[in-house]
Please model this.
Amino acid sequence: MELTYPIKRRKSRAVKIGDVIIGGGFPVAIQSMTTTDTADVEATVTQINQLFNAGADIVRLAVLNHEKSTALTEIRSRISKPLVADIHFQYKLALKAIEAGFDKIRINPGNIGADWKVREVTKAAKERGIPIRIGVNSGSLPKDILEKFGHDSPEGFVEAALREIAILEEMDFHDIVISVKSTSTVTAFWAYHMLAEKCDYPLHLGITESGTLETGSIKSSVGIGTMLMTGIGDTIRVSLTADPVHEVRVAKQILTSCALKNDGVEVIACPTCGRCQIDMIPMAELVESKTRHIHTPLKVAVMGCAVNGPGEAAAADVGIAGGDGRGMLIKKGEIVRRMDESELVETLLSEIESMTGEKIER
Ligand code: SF4
Model:
């Protein structure tokens, strides 16, 4: 692995998932998964819409069994954005999802069974012109690979993925996306990098079973972030033991932090220190929660004091800094107005509205 500055993104093949293209130099797409019972159309459609509204580009549904697959056609008919069916064990469910018009199928080589089943799914995907993700996971590596490499070897992940790629390529099928998700960020980092050198298929990055909201966000940010910063990755999914809307928020923040996404509001907030004389933490949280829906790129600063605040907020388009019961509005590092502490947040939100032209609910 060669490190370069600025970061050179790996050249990957472009693969189309509905109206979203991943790979081929296109923006890194955000994915998440529903947690509803797919037999419950209303609940599933509602959650899919919540995820797209939060900023997901692609939403995946786990289809558990034939009973749960009956509503796929209706769900598909109510959602125009890219939907992926996640299939384990039963290849016939993949065929059903393809027939229902899903935009991509994810299969797991460790549990889909005999090669001929993979070929059946590939044949159907080829006929419909949709891609397949080969999703290798640490919890379900094929038995012989586990025996040869053990549970947590990057080489084992890569061999499992290459084996499945070979079956698809034999059928002249190349609309392939690959993931090699480990629960270990270190194993995932090396598995993805090894794979990146062996093929040009787009990579779906993730750290599997990363944990609860706080620890899982940190683990995913380290794992996915280091891979993105070393030039690989075409789509990401943050796996959290939490409402999946959080997965989308964290994924957006990872992309913003890696300078791979510049739309929306980025809140720069100081950590506070002994100089802070306002109740700043709730102010920063409020500004962040009220501006999540905004699409216009804007850097917003919330700083605790007048000593360092204006200087530290100079990189922001607009911001506030506190004082002793008072505070100031700052634009591009210049103080433009002073006011009472109680007016700070409202003044900043109004300013953001007028700079972006996007409404903020109060
Ligand atoms: S901006 Fe002021 S309050 Fe915030 S960390 Fe810097 S010095 Fe402390």
